[in-house]
């Protein structure tokens, strides 16, 4: 078997994917009939999971872990009793907490792993707290709210020797692996441009924060929900979904979809940190020639351009578009052929051709679609059992096997990969937020020095080198009594 190279925060994805190419993809356990009859799984082949965030996506995450057959749901945690109700009914023996800190303090000896499916702004503190206790972690995308947090979690995962996975399930799909194999086989030559797009946001965005607060529901612990974010009064229509459009809590369309959509080209092209970022954003006008200024919230649409260095030394243009904005259809695509999945997609342009896929890397194809040479490319990368549906079980089995195991090395989205991907995603948000930086003029009005420029990014040091005001968005200041613990 080809020797594995150490995983790092830069390049390693090709080695990661191919290092186990000759290894069996299955998970080896003592046969169930030997241990206790058909359907029996020995306790030593199971992990006890605490689910932080038990409603919505958390509910489906917890169910998927349980369905792997190698996990017991021992504990549930949610700040909103209403959202947790279904999971509590589904797992009546699971002990319930509202504060994840109390859960981890009291039950640390009883749990093996933690799933985190909460709003973005609390991902990092919860994840770090669990890892520092030696617990394996599964975290919904995006991994973190800030670039700094992503770097810290990536480093901590290796420091504490825990098994990690981000919830971008398409990374376990066959489509992503096929695109890597096509690219490595040279079917499109060297990549020159990437286009990624989404129809998100599908929640209110680019609007003013409500002026009037109200009383939170009795089932919701509002202070715990705020967590690391600055204190504000509770407002209607924020919980449980629309927080995504506000910078204190969410990461906009990029945070919601880019870990799914940018992941296939990020992996296929073996990208590291971007070197530049620039953007344009959509506007909301509140009067004639009167542009609304709502810096608390994400814009209604945006176009971000990142630059990456390719192995040849050439620059790669990487475009992200949201709010329904899409790139021009490639000439190789027929007039009635769908681009991506209609609302979302990826096109990678190369020196010898192009390839395209839908969200999660689904339905990869070479362009024009009449090309047949892709069928001749051998499968060199191990597939995940059940594809993207096996993303959860893959992590559970790696937790059972342990850090450094074969199962660990075959994970689709450990923090060593998910961390740098998330940093690139959030670099787009850094550019978008820099667009709204304003300074008052002496004679009235404002200047917007972050508009019409490109940001030069020092990836290893997490710093914009030509516009210092942008660096305030690399790392947030948490509310008092909240800390990342590093």
Automatic annotation (TrEMBL):
Domain (Gfo/Idh/MocA-like oxidoreductase bacterial type C-terminal) ranges: 215-264
Organism the protein comes from: Echinicola strongylocentroti
GO terms, molecular function: nucleotide binding
Span of domain Gfo/Idh/MocA-like oxidoreductase N-terminal: 50-167
SUPFAM superfamilies: Glyceraldehyde-3-phosphate dehydrogenase-like, C-terminal domain (SSF55347), NAD(P)-binding Rossmann-fold domains (SSF51735)
Protein name, per record: Gfo/Idh/MocA family oxidoreductase
Family matches, as InterPro entries: Gfo/Idh/MocA-like_OxRdtase_N, Gfo/Idh/MocA_oxidrdct_glycsds, Gfo/Idh/MocA_OxRdtase_bact_C, NAD(P)-bd_dom_sf, TAT_signal
PANTHER family: BCDNA.GH03377, NADH-DEPENDENT DEHYDROGENASE-RELATED
Superkingdom, taxonomy of origin: Bacteria
